[in-house]
Amino acid sequence: MGEGLVLVGSVQSGDRLxxxxxxxxxxxxxxxxxxxxxxxxxxTGRAHIVGITGAPGTGKSSLVNELAKxxxxxxxxxxxxxxxxxxxxxxxxxxxxxxxxxxxxxxxRMRDLAGDPGxxxxxxxxxxxxxxxxxxxxxxIQGLDAAGFEIILVETVGAGQAEVDIARHAHTTVVVExxxxxxxxxxxxxxxxxxxxxxVVNKADLAGAERAVQILETALGLAPRQKPAAQGREAEETWxxxxxxxxxxxxxxxxxxxRQILRHGGYLRASxxxxxxxxxxxAAEIESRVRDRLADRWRHSQPDGLFEKTxxxxxxxxxxPAAAVAILLGQGGTEGI
Amino acid sequence: xxxxxxxxxxxxxxxDGHDRGAKxxxxxxxxxxxxxIYTGLRQTPEMIAEAALQEDVQVVGLSILSGxxxxxxxxxxxxxxxxxxGEVPVFVGGxxxxxxxxxxxxxxxxxxxGPGTSTEVVVERIRRSLGETVAS
Lengths: 337, 136
Fold this sequence. Notes:
By secondary structure, chain A is of the alpha/beta class. Chain A is built from 12 helices and 8 strands.
């Protein structure tokens, strides 16, 4: 039973197997994992969390691989704050909605990182979650943070337009594009582009790269200087998301991306936005936990069969969905939520 | 059956560049509801053991066609044991001559799957091996 608590001590003294087992407990939402995380929570909040998102096939895994190599090597001279950093990686791939199974293949592109004790790579299946991350990815990030990894790269499921959960977990969000994926209309749509702190056009050696960069720059130029406060984010007046070119398969341009990530971290800290985002993230996490607990409590308080019966009344158009909610909340004894 | 999702590592140690078999198995395990972590080609035993550790998998499957299994498999088993994962069942698939099978089994390989093994059998054996691990 005390498995989680034994792990806490070992994780903090650098035991990698203990860390791996802790992450499993967190991922499976076991009570031990929960109490271990609670124990470790005071030592979290130190890592710079970087989200890497973008459509499938844009080269996110290869970019993560190259970024990790650059961060391990050091971006700038150490005295200018760019020395070598340890890197934790969380790579999320989709679960099958039919079987619950998953094929997690992001490690294939990360083979260069093998044998480095300053790197820890963990693959996760999305397990039915739709926002581009798994429900427990936040907890896994906290586990790596508590274990002392300084940069945590979080690679989302190949995301289309609205998978913007990552912006709520990361300090810095990198959106990866590739040539030929969309026109200027795509770039104006709401969603992934709005959450970008950095934009990367990967595969920049392919035809159409110039055009992709232009489209993105034009789309960003259309935005008002002060972004509307989107999805739990404060308006930021002075950070213009840079558009960068990389060829992740050869590493070209990646060092500049790493430098911009650190620069963005510096900007967040200097402007005070770092702590604003931290508070927003915490608020969102507490809110979603409260919501889960309330829903559980409500479910347990329901008389048997009432829910099914009410669904039937709505289906036969006897009452409206809104009236059904009033009935279910009223009889469940939880009015006021 | 354990409550937690089964996480399996499918790895290709050694130098042969043919991973169709590994991918067929990975796909079948995925369709059976397991979470499969695939390492890709040309992994050293050290890389495989490291991946098994970081991913905290419950099962390791090795696909070997090169003939180097008597070198690669014992090394993987030894590394797993020395890093505290000696209880993780290791399955081997590929071209393994009959006369090598007893030696591999005595080293601790849970099962050897030759060409023509149906994917249902592989899934069933993996599930069964975990049932035993959990019970003991």
